[in-house]
Write a structure and sequence with these properties.
about 0% strand; 9 helices; globular; disordered C terminus; single chain; mainly alpha
């Protein structure tokens, strides 16, 4: 049971309309309305408007969930990961922090290595930044770092306040698949180009 009560429906309605699915994490954020709406907007952008392939994105989110022991993120993103083309075994390996995952591309493994390092050290070695730039390009490297930071922030909130899981994982997966244009993670890392 969550450590804070969720705000009443009337208080959280404006916040929840910004999310494709009314999630408990965003209900909880309605306690802080000044930051709730921008937080949801950033999450929607990270899931739908970046150049990151969906499978790489979901592997990184699951890796953050594993590093921070965030069951909420793990439960909600496992079905999304499967829709993005990840097998249950690959999803479990991403959560566990496995270094080399069968069937993953070099770009996905570079992204996961950067995720583990950034969550652990709160910075990246020069060699890691170079590997990210080579594998993803500058635009997607920055998007990746933002993605990691966003899900670390949410994990801290979810863990600290013991936010309850929803029973709507499939609905969440469908909404995110629709948002992200049903990306399958098969595009070239540089398909979307660099902003620089």
């Amino acid at each position: 049971m969550a450590r804070f009560p969720y705000p009443n429906e009337r208080s959280s309605q404006a916040v929840l309309t910004r999310s494709p699915v009314p999630l408990n994490v965003f209900r909880m954020l309605a306690h802080a309305p000044a930051v709730a709406e921008p937080t949801i907007d950033l999450g929607v952008a990270l899931l739908s408007a970046t150049g990151l392939p969906a499978r790489l994105r979901e592997a990184v989110i699951l890796s953050v969930a594993g590093r921070l022991c965030c069951s909420y993120e793990q439960v909600q993103h496992a079905p999304i990961a499967e829709r993005s083309g990840m097998t249950p075994e690959q999803a479990a390996a991403a959560v566990d922090g496995t270094v080399h995952i069968d069937g993953f591309t070099e770009a996905e493994e570079v992204a996961l290595a950067a995720t583990r390092e950034l969550v652990r050290e709160h910075t990246l070695e020069h060699a890691t930044v170079s590997a990210l730039r080579q594998a993803l390009g500058e635009r997607q490297a920055v998007e990746l770092i933002m993605l990691i930071g966003y899900y670390v922030m949410l994990a801290n909130l979810l863990n600290a306040l013991e936010v309850d899981f929803e029973s709507a994982s499939d609905e969440i997966a469908s909404a995110i698949s629709e948002l992200s244009g049903q990306q399958r993670g098969t595009q070239s890392p540089h398909t979307q180009g660099d902003a620089s």
